[in-house]
Amino acid sequence: MDGLWIRPMKVEDIDEVLSIEKLCFSTPWSREAFRAEIERNHCARYVVAELEGKVIGYGGMWIILDEAHITNIAVHPDYRGKGVGEALMKALIGTASRLRVDGMTLEVRVSNVIAQNLYKKLGFVSVGVRKGYYGDNGEDALIMWRGKYT
Questions:
Q1: Grouped pLDDT means (10 residues each) for the chain, 150 residues
Q2: 55 close to 35: Cβ distance less than 8 angstroms
Q3: By CB count within 10 A, which of 54, 55, 65, 79 is most buried?
């Protein structure tokens, strides 16, 4: 997408990130959760996708030893299907690579086939299921890994 910029998330981005969070998830993170991730969690790395001065997506991960765990990724519904999610994921993968992280993992709803297909395209493979992982409806999560265990 022309003009798309992926950059580190700042505290000033939280209002826009919260708007996207509320559109995308039935149990959205709070302002305090995002602030803590940015300001106090030394394991956390968060990025935003910006287009024409507007945040249209975000993603984050925790780096723990030699593994990266994708905590969340979301794209505003008006911008889905345009490569924003892929750009965010590639930015996180690039950050992990620069930090010499051996593997990346994430959980994704078993019903979210579109996201699963993106992750597979980027080298993630399914390695298991977490039964009843999602608290809002008890849906199972597919566990996916890239690198270390694949």
A1: 95 98 94 97 98 98 96 97 97 96 95 96 96 92 88
A2: no
A3: 55
